[in-house]
């Protein structure tokens, strides 16, 4: 009599509590009394597994749980870049980035550039959190006199704003 041994492999997937976040399911198409943006459900999801909200619905990260079932969420489609049109070399100026509506459907990173003009940003990237329309500010310190074009791009699906043109004057000479 012969004996056969079969090896068994077990795979364990570990989901940490920090990877599970609150998401909302909202309408992208009106249905009955529920208009576009109507929040139909709130779920805890790890973001790694597959989840299909269904036809006429979309999913958005709502880590702050700001949108209960029955509320209305209007996702951002774009964001604005604002700041002074004039500056002095070596002196920081404040730039503000603001998403429209209720914020993007997922965390969205915005990257700033001065087109290799040599200036410095207090942070070259900022993040808009999902379902949050909080403005983000950074400072930009121009290096030299001239015109600097500051632009912003994002890793989500938001429309990028027009570039900001800043006329930089020379720093006052020390006396």
Characterize the structure shown.
There is one protein chain. This protein is mainly β. Helix content is 0%, strand content 38%. A 5-stranded mixed beta sheet has the order 5-12-11-7-9, with no helix packed on it. Mean pLDDT is 89; it is low at 1-15.
Please write out the topology:
Blueprint: E1 21-27, E2 39-45, E3 57-61, E4 79-83, E5 86-88, E6 93-99, E7 108-113, E8 120-121, E9 125-128, E10 136-141, E11 146-154, E12 164-169
Parallel strand pairs: 5-12
Antiparallel strand pairs: 1-2, 1-3, 4-6, 6-10, 7-9, 7-11, 8-10, 11-12
Low-confidence stretches: 1-15
The sequence of SSEs as H and E is EEEEEEEEEEEE
Residue fraction in strands: 35-45%
Mean of all residue-level pLDDT scores: 89
Strand order of the largest sheet: 5-12-11-7-9
Main sheet attributes: strand count, strand direction, barrel closure: 5 strands, mixed
Tell the overall outline: elongated
Question: What class do helices, strands and sheet pairing give?
Answer: mainly beta
Q: Using DSSP, what is the number of strands?
A: 12
Pick out its properties.
175 residues, mainly beta, 12 strands, elongated, disordered N terminus
Brief digest:
The protein is mainly beta and 175 residues long.
